[in-house]
Amino acid sequence: MVIINGGVTAPKGFTAAGTACGIKKDGKKDLAIVCSEHTATAAGVFTTNVVKGHSLQLTLEHIKDHCAKAVVVNSGNANACIGEQGLKDAKEITALTADILQCKPENILFNSTGVIGQALDMDALRLGIPKAASSLSENGSCDAAQAILTTDLITKEIAVELAINGEKVRIGGMAKGSGMIHPNMATMIGIVTTDANLPPLLLEKALKAAVKTSFNRVSVDGDTSVCDMVVMLANGAVAHTPIQSEEAAFKAFTEALSYVCLSLSKMIAQDGEGATKLIEICAQGAASEEDAYKIVCAVAKSPLVKTAIFGEDANWGRIITAVGYSGAGFDPNAVDISIGGLTVCKNGTALPFDENKAKAILEQKEVSILIQLNEGCFSDRMFTCDFSYDYVKINGSYRS
Amino acid sequence: MVIINGGVTAPKGFTAAGTACGIKKDGKKDLAIVCSEHTATAAGVFTTNVVKGHSLQLTLEHIKDHCAKAVVVNSGNANACIGEQGLKDAKEITALTADILQCKPENILFNSTGVIGQALDMDALRLGIPKAASSLSENGSCDAAQAILTTDLITKEIAVELAINGEKVRIGGMAKGSGMIHPNMATMIGIVTTDANLPPLLLEKALKAAVKTSFNRVSVDGDTSVCDMVVMLANGAVAHTPIQSEEAAFKAFTEALSYVCLSLSKMIAQDGEGATKLIEICAQGAASEEDAYKIVCAVAKSPLVKTAIFGEDANWGRIITAVGYSGAGFDPNAVDISIGGLTVCKNGTALPFDENKAKAILEQKEVSILIQLNEGCFSDRMFTCDFSYDYVKINGSYRS
Questions:
Q1: Among A35, B134, B233, B242, which residue has the fewest nearby CB atoms (within 10 Å)?
Q2: Considering only CB atoms, which chain A residues are within 8 Å of B311?
Q3: What pTM, to 2 d.p., does this model score?
């Protein structure tokens, strides 16, 4: 597998576009379309929030047949909690897009991200959809990646190439997400494309496996949105022998897909609202898979840990405290903690350490925290970011 | 029941003291003793964190006989995660205090609050304990309330008087807690005294009931400390007919105690690190007690809700989002949300509201959020505070 330039249009047979239709008041791009030349096999992972955006609800219906031709996403408005109008508007958008792209409305997947509780600006979208559709191109992935952003500062794109049954196939992806990021679901909007050929059930299996260790292992603020989804289109544009079972080719494909998803996830954590540092939290030696997950989750969510890392303060007491209330079972007298390779706690007890060395580690842009439980053989890993003044600033005035 | 002046020394037969022994580098008070003239009945509620401070571990042993004469608390150092030395030091403190107060070491309850992972400054404490003990007085409650503070800005004290079986009895309390505050336990240090006469099991029952709706319903940052406890001493100094069963007198006593605990809890939320507002979150009409709790808990912990309130932004989308991922079961199309009495969401749908009115409500120092599920008859309530720049500032450099 090699990393190549580009994003969702790197695989054959995909085009994309991103335009400004007027939903965002500042004139920034707010409408993206990713389109496959031929109808593709589709799979998705969606928010587990009981409250779901209207656009997302429609997409949950449309993906049931495992087929899609295009994904439409608007930013600036979540189309959530506005009653019957929300579903009606979502249906109109998919019908309009299907009409232009000459497919069934059911083959359009639609999602919206932004403020909750305001009706979509349908006049803007009615003009925007044809405009975006007419500018679909193989060079449009960067525009599309820009158009799905909300409070994100950077676009998030990646593409890889690998050999499947002797032929080169590609996987490309883009994502948005900066706040309201926590697992239990897809935790953001991600769109992944591939020109590989594999049946719906294997595509779904590969996507779920990849999401589990990537998008579902990112936390910015512990809040999980009502519009989160990761969808994937596989159009089989490369004429390789199809992946038919969980053979070596499936394994290679899943690994490459996991790499794509993990790369996008780390970009999300790194670009977390107000973030100055990417934090990787690993739990090792846990008694069960569930315990390992609970521990990385509790540490990644702790505002006290996140503010300490922002302040470049090796306050590991807050880490062991979060481990302690995580709900995981463990012996507090057997826990070791290290920060960037520097052991600060051994057998649950403070270890004298060089504060200057700790400071040098914490001044880096990427900080890793390792919690060794010495209980069993299970491990987990989660990515998060630090908590800064800017997180408060960004979120104190989001609607206005 | 009437509110009276004073704190833990308002009930008969209690003295208190607070001194600066040198644990805190800035010369502020850091050692408190609350003492009963005669050995009192004792009850306590303690942290559920798997990791427990060494002082707290010893107190868990000492309270097993339901008797105590005094409570000793040092601030500035949590005496946690420092290995065998921690328990040894805690034992020396209780032995030293018992020697001076002429009781068994088991009758001394000891706790420590502050930084984790540093050994207690025993030289300071060996000089401090006799000094504090010698200044025990009926006027010492305010000094004691100061000496238990860490990042708190204000002391937290209250006292009430009520009639039990024809005699006037009093309940007094003090508390500390500003960060690392979240339920699942006592969530801070609280010391409550009374001159009422009741047996250990009833005292424990009353305290648990009071803590459930007060100290266990406060969240500042979702982090739960390793040193949290609420302990209560009842010395029976007022010669009333003892409370012997769950009769009317017990009910009146529990109600007054709940008032004391709730008042202290609200002071803690109001004084949360960096807090500018006290937020009361109510869930009503939930399908079960557990669902109601999950909902108030999720909303109280959400950094996005807390930053929105700091920014005086009526962003109720974040409230319904937190309700949605709380884990509670409910119909998203039946939820009503109001902020300070202003309904902003009805049947899960945005309601047009006057932004100026919302702004006026959010400019107040106390903001209430009501979530009506329209599912059943269970309700719950939690207090929290907003999330400000100062929370980040305070916690980015706590150790230094």
A1: B134
A2: 395-398
A3: 0.81
- Minimum-distance CB partner of A80 among B180, B301, B317: B317
Residue type at position B306: K
Q: How confident is the model at residue B392 (pLDDT cuts 50, 70, 90)?
A: confident
Asked if residue B290 and residue B266 are part of one domain, the reply reads no
Residue ranges of chain A whose pLDDT lies below 70: 178-187, 220-226, 395-400
Q: Which residues of B touch A308 (CB under 8 A)?
A: 395-396, 398
Residues A247 and A189 in one domain: yes
Could you list the residue range(s) of the whole structural domain that residue B387 is in?
Answer: 278-396
State how far the Cα of B263 lies from the Cα of B250, in Å rounded to an integer: 20
Return phi, psi of residue B239, to 5°.
-85, 60
Which residues of chain A are within 8 Å of residue B391 when distances are taken between CB atoms?
Answer: 303, 307, 392
B48 is catalytic: no
In this structure, are A257 and A318 located in the same domain?
no
Q: Are residues A290 and A234 in the same domain?
A: no
Beta strands in A2-144 (DSSP E): 2-4, 14-19, 31-46, 67-77, 108-115
Which of A110, A54, A112, A113 has the alpha carbon at shortest distance from A85?
A: A54
What are the beta bridge partners of residue B336? Answer: B372
CATH number at residue B42: 3.60.70.12
Q: Are residues B237 and B300 in the same domain?
A: no
Digit-coded pLDDT (tens) for A300-337: 988 889 888 998 988 898 899 889 988 899 999 999 99
A204 and A334, same domain (yes or no): no
Which pLDDT does position B14 carry in this prediction? 97
Q: Are residues A68 and A44 in the same domain?
A: yes
- Chain-chain contact of A392 with B316 (C-beta, under 8 angstroms): no
Q: Which residues of chain B from 248 to 307 reach within 8 Å of chain A, CB to CB?
A: 301-304, 307
Contact A269, A260 (CB under 8 A): no
Q: Which of B251, B270, B289 lies at the terminal end of a domain, its last residue?
A: B270
Q: Hey, which residues 321-380 in chain A have their CB within 8 Å of chain B?
A: 321-325, 328-330, 332, 344-345, 347-350
Confidence check on the interface: ipTM exceeds 0.85, yes or no: no
* pLDDT(B203) > 60: yes
- What is each CA distance from B309 to B319, B359, B384, in whole angstroms? 11, 10, 11
Range B369-374 average pLDDT: 96
Q: Looking at A47, A59, A150, A187, which residue is catalytic?
A: A187
Reported as a single tens digit per residue, the pLDDT across A156-198 is 999 999 999 999 999 999 999 866 555 443 337 889 999 999 9
**Chosen from A150, A307, A394 to mutate, greatest number of chain B CBs within 10 A:** A307
Residues of A in contact with B226 (CB under 8 A): 320-321, 324
Q: Give the count of domains, chain A.
A: 2
- Specify whether B145 is located in the same domain as B282: no
Q: What is the pLDDT of residue B9?
A: 97
**In this complex, how many residue pairs, one in chain A and one in chain B, have their CB atoms less than 8 Å apart?**
214
Q: How many CA atoms lie within 13 A of A365 on its CB side?
A: 5
Q: Which among A270, A305, A323 is the end of a domain? A: A270
CATH number of domain containing B285: 3.10.20.340
Inspect the interface and report whether the beta carbons of A180 and B304 lie closer than 8 Å: yes
Nearest CB to B225; choose among A225, A313, A321: A321
Read off the amino acid at residue B258. S
Higher pLDDT, A371 or B274: A371
- Classify residue B288 as left (phi > 0), alpha (psi -120 to 50) or beta: beta
Of A83, A223, A313, the CB nearest to B398: A313
E strand segments, chain B = 2-4, 14-19, 31-46, 67-77, 108-115, 156-164, 167-176, 189-194, 218-219, 229-234, 278-286, 336-339, 342-346, 349-350, 366-372, 378-385
